[in-house]
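Have a think about this chain, tokens included, and walk me through the fold.
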Amino acid sequence: MAASPVKRRHKVRRRADMSLLGGIRPPIAVLSALLLALAGITALGLGRTVQDRVPEAVLTSQQQFAEDGAIALRASIDESFTDLGRTAGLFNAADPVSPDAVLDKISSVYQKWTGTAVVEISSGKLLAARGENVPLTAINTSELSGKDALGPRMVRLANGETRLLSFALLSWPGTPQQLLVASSNLRFPGISLGQFRSIAVIDADAAILSSDGIPQPEQLLTDTQRADAKRADKQLKSFAKTASIKVRKHPLSAKEPGSGGFPGVSGSLLGSVHTGDRNVAGYASLAGPQPGEPTIATGLGLSVVSMVPVAENPTAVAGPLFGLIAAGALVLVGALAVALLLGTVQRPLIRLFLESRRLTRGDLTRPVSAPSYGEAARIGRSLERLRRQLLGEPRSTEPPRRGRVGTRGLLVVCGVLVLAWCAPMLLLLNRADATAVVPQQLVNDQRERTDTLTDRVRRALNEGQADLLSVATLIGADTSPADMRTVLERTRLEHDRYQSLYVVDATGKVVAHAGDTPHQPVGKAADGGPIQVLNDSGKKPVIAGEAGIPGRDGATVVGEFRIEFINGLLKRPGLGQVSIVDEKQRIIGGNTGYRAFQELPGERLRTLVAGTNQKTGVSMHPSGILYRDGGKVQIAAAAPFVGGGAAKSLGWTVVSRQPASSLAIPEYRRQNLTVLAGLLGMAAAIACLGWLHIVVVRPLRALADQAEALAGGDRRTVLYPRHHDEVGAVTRSLELVRQQLPAQQKREPAPTAPTTYAERT
């Protein structure tokens, strides 16, 4: 028994739904899923109450402060060990000198050690000593032949303080070997603490080896001060205990996804609350300059802990209403866009598929139900013309009619609907520049970290000039040019701060050199301070240090510093753009791209540098500001060279600035989440609508042209489906119709000529 037309129609529809994979359904389904997921993310991300008592930016800043301290301490320990070994090597390469002469020359060049001593290894006898008493009882000279016997070691004194001992051998032919010992404390070199901050060095067992920032009992005058100091000391010990456990992790497993910049283990901690201030700490282990590269200092198992009280913010940035409204609006907009696609694109195309299949089966009794607009309407009208041609009607000569609205226009309307939600999220809503509250602690940290960075650069230049002075002292009056070249080459290889080292005589002639070609003009001796900039234009500043060679009538050792070495010192995360400017506020170096000797940009920055270089009391002090410029909030700080040493005469200032929008402040985090939601919505619309345009709209437009050509009499063009989808199915049906049209024309009777009246009679 034959099935009814209704059952056959449902069977055809099920077969069409089951056979068609891809096509118009997946882009619309994916767009619906993405918009629903984005609505959920918006409701959860922007709908929750943002109430961070201590902003994440403050926690990150404390972590970075501890990292700065760890870097400075590691560099100081490694530099101390290297300088002692290199100095002993230079002594060993020259003629033997007395132990007192060795210590006198070391004391005249370096002031980094609290005490130095020379011990005869065979007998353990003290031959000479300078400065603080070196704890020689902790040294067993009979064990110096073992592996790593000359490595530095920590010794705790009777008063509870800790000293770090460094060793080097003094060895000359025919003379008993001697041990050069240098003692130093574990205090931080040049760390600017500011007010209320404390910092400590701890070992692997959480014991505090040295600390700074907490007043000693004899410095306190009132019971309140003593109670505060006791509370701070207790909190610092608690932080030290927690940090000693956390730094034992592997650096890769300890880091959060996306964090980087510091090769060791670091983090932040929250402590107790007192009178509205919460103690916040940062910790960092001593790590090498490159990941996986241990140094002398990293083998000591030391870590750094810094602590500062931060005022809590009890107010909430926003409530959940905005997130819920934004999510609801997105659901509404997405529903309208998807409904438009379903009603104006998908359903007409499915109807075309069913109508074309009906014609191929020979069901020509009913007219084709054509859509009302777009390419689907053009194809539907063409199918109706083809149906009539299959019934034997003559081909219509009327040109095909095209509507004003196409499928591309419908996609544009859908895109505009989604864009109407995305554009305010991207450009208007939750703008934080006018309302963001930047914690004062961030401004203080920017100032203190910039001051610490300034001292680090100054000390690096001073160390370089001290190395030159050591080389000049040991070269002396009788060293040949060949031996000079050997000493210079050895020094350049041991330190990466120099791009060239050379010796010039009183006339300016280069006697010996190592490394790159010297920039010192021939025939002109170096003048000015011990460290100077040799040029005032060009692509790179040439920074050189010098030291006179005793007994050689004005001969000088000159070392030119690599500008890359100085710029590398400025690369610290969390400080933004950092520049070094000279007395004329011209840029000498920086951590980002810059033009040498260019004027410092921005009137506010120039005013900040000028004000920082004004003496307040007996010296200049670093300064930091928060200013709004054109709706943008900026944090800037400047710190001049105020310490001693040869680099002070340069008159340089380190300037740092960064936009507050780059910090994890609640208002800016909310703004970033809002912008992210807008970007995700725009990306979803572009991806899905573009997918729909490529897979459906373009083939549909081409098919509309082919269908009109076929209905207009083109019987030779073969129609090939591009994809196995709805458009491809309609294309196959049209191809079957094209193949049926010539056979139908053969069955049609040939037209006869009209007869006249005379013929009929």
Confidence is low (pLDDT under 50) at residues 1-21, 522-526, 746-761. The chain has 16 helices and 20 strands.
